[in-house]
Amino acid sequence: MNISESRKQAIRNFAQDYTDDVLEKMLPYANTKHNREKGYRISVMPAITKDIKIWFENVGWHKPENWPKVGDAIFQLIYEVIEKKNYNSFAEFESKYELSKGFKSGFISPTLFFLNSKYRIINNKTILTVNFILEKKAIDRDLANYMKYVSIIDELIPSLEIDLLNEPEKFDMFCHFMCDKRLGGYAKYIGKSSQGFAAVEIDEEEIAILDNDLEPSGHWEAVYYITQIGKLLGYKTYVADPSREAFGKKLGDIADLSEVPPILKTAPFKEFEDRYNFRTYEELFDFYKEVKNYTEFREKFLRL
Predict the structure, then answer these.
(1) Does 203 fall in a domain?
(2) Which of 72, 93, 115 is the last residue of a domain?
(3) What is Dmax (Cα atoms) for the chain?
């Protein structure tokens, strides 16, 4: 190889797009056959079930041509935090809304944690558990205040006087226990119904389980989206058959009410059929994406 060829190779390597490496090797993916075959980084604290590009493009968060800038922004954030301890980079990343949209602490903190365990995992389970214990909204998903939230957790754990929880991995398991409905779900279900501080929200895990927000193709998948829309808009939700599943999740696990309010039990649909309009699955899916985009922007705009 002569000097000219070496120079061309160096230029090609320097200009090589590392976007896919960042998105596929640094972010936390679920342990599925698809993800293993694709070579994605499998994490025990996943936030992504399948293809993040398809997922985020489907909900209108990012455009295909935007991904190189997104990948670079994520890499720079992680590099600045791990290598330089530049914690201002959290706020800087989040302020670039066209690049950071959709990337909350549940996506970034698992990577930081596995690079340095002092950076705690802060996902929806962590948030619900800590807020439940402290009986107030003490921590959230935003990255701008991530280090503040880490400090709150670091101060909370010793006060619990449970030695086992001093290990970060064990505390994360404890948060899972506190939010899993089958294990009691004290923070997620009891806390939400009894404490005024628990805001209605859709967490990273619940969004991810939608299999990258696929368009509904059947009745129960449509019910799933209708329920999610209701939750996003702050309504109490109910499903007629909680045992049914859609996108790998039981509908009873996402609905708020186990019984339908008495006023609706005798609704005379036939008598008032002229008041109802037909909507396709595609229209429902489009409406869901608009609602989710609205709630994301509302959260950012109204955040104090």
Answers:
(1) no
(2) 115
(3) 84
